[in-house]
Amino acid sequence: MGDQDTIKVGLHGYIMPDYSPKWKQILAYASGENTVRIVFDACRVSDLGPYTITDDEYERTNQKTRFQQVKESAQVLSQDLSYRFGDLGDKAFLIEHEEYKLILLAGQRLRVKDISLSTKIPREYELLTFGRDGIDDRDLLDDTFESLEGEGLPAIGEHLLAYGHQGPMEHERIFQYCTDGRFTAVEHNAKIAMPNAAWLIPQIHSALLPLRGARKSANIRLEKLIKTIKNPFIDNGSSFPVIANDDSDFPEHIGAAYTEFLRDQIRLDTNGDNITEDLMRLITNNQFRVHKGHLTFPQIMKYAYLIKTN
To answer: For residue 79, how many other CB atoms are within 10 A of its CB?
Structure first.
């Protein structure tokens, strides 16, 4: 990409573990601070955006998705005339302040079921998409692939080799879903960040139990595997696409990892559908570069402590 004008994009972020009053209070969202103002400031520091607000079907508040709640916060924030709100359709919006523009895009993490090749027992995994939210999940993986493809949405393999959550996925399955083009890409996840050696220290091991699947080696092993898989979307011998995301649960996580694209290749300021379509095209064509960062050790310890005690 050289000296060309690029943008840093985050395609997987939660901002906080859930949108309950408890977590809003813990993270100061309920102490007179607007949710979007905090997100805006964090993205501006990292020069990041568009940024995706990822929904959890099982963690919605009052039947509103995270994106819907954040959008409402943005509309409230725009009552401060120094902030401008711009609607980009149902699944994206723009907030502008002091010449900095931030586009927030809807997304969702989907829990899906698949049959193990070795045991023939159903297993549950997580799949990431962006450009939509409010999608019913817990369907079979094949059915979810079909549904997302039919809507023109991506299917991103999320922390596929990490223990905890529902992983790891069998290597044979990863190879199959990549070579068949069912996965649009796989993800380097900034929260999968703990060095293996840290688990050998009893006090740290105990403190990190809430993040028992977050070993940095899971990212490394996945990326090593993916290098052996050719990109099925283009015939140039390149490897399967690997994007990078921060998977933020706290504002300070935002920007830890991101994917960078050429600005003029994305129809920004139009609507969420166009942005999603352009991002998918660039991802499948491997026309991007990644910043494969991780949370710092203090960030990991703070995250583990707050999850464990709340």
So the answer is: 9
Other Cβ atoms less than 10 A from the Cβ of 210: the count is: 15
What the block records as the tokens of 76 is 């409230």
Show the tokens assigned to 15.
């901002």
If we measure between CA atoms, which residue out of 81, 180, 166 comes closest to residue 127?
166
Measure the CA dihedral 189/192/196/200, to 10°. Answer: 170
Give the number of other CB atoms < 10 A from CB of residue 143.
11
Return the structure tokens found at 261.
């694209």
**For 305, which DSSP code?**
H
Enumerate residue ranges in the chain where pLDDT < 50: none
Provide the pLDDT for residue 35.
Answer: 84
What pLDDT is recorded for position 59? 58
How far, in whole angstroms, is CA 27 from its chain's centroid? 20
- Report whether 180 contacts 233 (CB < 8 A): no
Q: Which sequence spans correspond to the domains of the chain? A: 6-309
Measured CA to CA, the distance from residue 284 to residue 241 in angstroms comes to 7
Q: What is the pLDDT of residue 274?
A: 97
Listed in sequence order, the residues at least 6 apart from 237 whose beta carbon sits closer than 8 Å to its beta carbon are: 230
What's the pLDDT score for residue 28?
Answer: 66
Interatomic CA distance for residues 238 and 230, integer angstroms: 6
The conformational region for residue 112 under phi > 0 = left, psi -120 to 50 = alpha, else beta, is beta
> For residue 174, what pLDDT is reported?
96
Amino acid 32: pLDDT: 63
End-to-end CA distance of the chain: 44
pLDDT value at residue 184: 98
The Cα 218–Cα 187 span in angstroms is 11
Q: 83-87 and 92-97: which strand pairing?
A: antiparallel
